[in-house]
Amino acid sequence: MAFDTKWKLDLDATTITLMADWSRDRWVGGPGQASTMLPGRGSSIDGNVYYAGLYNVNFDGDSLLSLKNYGASLHVEHDFGSAKLLSISAYRVTNGFLRGDSDATPIRFLNYYVAVNDKAITQEFQLSSSSDSKLKWILGTFFLKTHQPVLQNQVFVNLATNTEVRPFSKDLSRTTSIAAFAEATYAIDPRTKLTAGIRYTIDQKKHEFAANGGAKFVAPKETYKSPTWRLAINHDLSEDVMVYASYNRGFKSGVYSTGNTNPAVEPSKVDAYEVGMKSEFLDRRITFNLAGFYTKYRDIQIGTTIITPTGGSFRLFNAAGARFKGLEAELIVRPVNDLRLSASLSVLDGKYTSFTNAPGFAFAPDNRGAFRVPIDATGTKTINSPPFSAVVSARYIVHSSIGPIQFSANSSYISRYFTSVDKLIPQKSYNISAASIDWTSPDDRWNLRFWSNNIFNKRYFSLVLPRASGFVANPGEPRTYGLAATVKF
Description:
By secondary structure, the chain is mainly beta. The chain contains no helices and 28 strands.
């Protein structure tokens, strides 16, 4: 269930826009929480194999995800003539809980409950040049403050003694971030533009943790400061073809893992280089874009599950270095009015340039679960990085007396990749297709949409995780279809 609204008020040179939204989602068993034991990838903790099929589960308890999101934002823009001032204020809350059976077996071994109540407030100011200025520029400041408590409960049963343990923990993470930024684009000549931008960010992280009613652990306050920047140049070879090159420095501050007292991981930095071409031909009926990129990470942050005798916990690691390089291409064809055909492809090569203490996993003796084995992953492929992916789509609009009707279809292909650095669990290549029919009333107030995803019912995994009970996976959604209705007030 969802609701959103928007109010806009124009007062001469000032525009005030207020937006608000509210949504509530409740999934029994999902989404992505219906885990199944992988066949041939380790038995459960009691030595028996409990694989019940891709879309079947062997739970001894229920699985439920309930989330509520709401927030509001206020945009106030004033046009001074020679410049514009924009203020963006926002507030957002996300609260809910998730409970389920973590071991994916019918035996009572490990159940969990996680509750969150995140709150965030942001404020941004932007001062920008007028649209007809030869030198386009923007100056601004940004402020963020978050409050993120997490409650985690587990029910663990020692099978040897048939005794029950109920560990629980409380986390509180708080972030305060301030930043100032500036960017300018100058037309060197009628065909060439140069862009330069810089941002300076200061992030402050605080973390508190308490387990099983014990003393509260207060982590040292961490402060991260870093400049980031952007340099770009683009040149119009003709009215239809533009080439460009860019270099960007990015920064992600350190962060604490929840559920433990580990120190925060180191901040990561990225240098991204890209060259490309954007073009349009035949009166914009054909669009062709091509880009090549090279990205280098330092201290890239990676999350994984740490196996413990009572199940496991999520923890962040730093890989000393990683690099990505690849190509992306996009083709859009509009042979006739209201018909749009498109195709895109991506070729990716990702590799860890340095990762000497990577979190690998191995099967426990007699296939009774799994445990962590540190490995040297230097030179291995990065996780969750398919070497090849492609998408094709088509859209056609029929104009009628009762309103426009849009027919859409798309199909995507993902090549084989690995979900962990030890390469124990590969995700095989798969192809997913979807289609929809949309009707909109002539006054744009009503909309009906019939849709179907994974039309050919392809089987794949959306997530694979090692746990104390063995290797479990969340299957991707099978063929689904539905009808959605929207009304605007």
